Task: structure prediction
Amino acid sequence: MTAMNLTSQPLTLDLRVTFRIAHGASDQRRNVLARLEDGLGEGAAVPQWGETQEGIQAYLERAAGLVGDDPFLIEDVMERLPAGSQAARAALDMALHDLVGKRLGQPLYRLLGLNPDRLPLTSFTVAIDEPQVMAERVRQSGLPIIKVKLGSPDDEAIVAAIRRASDARLRLDANAGWTRQQAAQLIPRLAGYGIEFIEQPLAKDDIEGLRWLRKQKLGAPIFADESLKTGREMPALAGAVDGVVVKLQKTGGIREALKTIAMARALDMQVMLSCMVESSLGVTAAAHLAPLCDYADLDGPLLVANDPFSGITYEGAKFSLPERPGLGVVWKS
Result:
């Protein structure tokens, strides 16, 4: 049989507002669209992970001769791929699942045996800015769950301003922006504003610091994000955090994300399913796994001004999966 045709092209996303976190700021994201026959996938170029648009495309070019002719052998295809870009692997993995779903005429969540009625609500992310600017964005959004990016000198002032402007549920994300001492001082004060949990307060390699923080019982659960890519890092995090953040762009796709979620459950950890700044293509792929998770942070399309796809839909914090086959994503007309 003829080998499947794998191609890629740049997918440049313009952001509605400057997206500033502890790692830096951007007004545009240079992602990659992968096509495997009529299956689609997206790779997100995240600079702090060493991913670039050019690197993702180069990896997919090398992978083109390894995909074989049977999209149903997803495990075999992924095992043949060389080490390298996790974002490129994620894009190909998505495209394989999309193609299989289209061949079978079923949406991905059904192929995974999942119930779309069990989707958690999603948060909406507010990037770092002046405290009053962030508070106004939260107020204008009117959304009930907000993820607040921190890692600036004004962190407590930011949370205080947002809390004055809104009674939304707050999730805080320091993006590895604090030292142990800063975290130990800030977390009890921030917990007083009524927060659900804090993501990645310390540097990604400081697992013992996370373990030390958790033992202090500072008043807020701690989730690991940058400290975790795949399930292989999970054993080291056991007892160090209360939960983990799973993203397809980190795990290298849907297959590895499923394994990572299962390992988190085995270690009695909670799971938040999240995304990078991605179009509706990448975020919809992730959303099919959401019934397995406690929390969702799947707001990527809401941050993008020129999303070329239709897939996941939103009604406030509630999101819905498309009923179309595969990922269920189509080009906007």
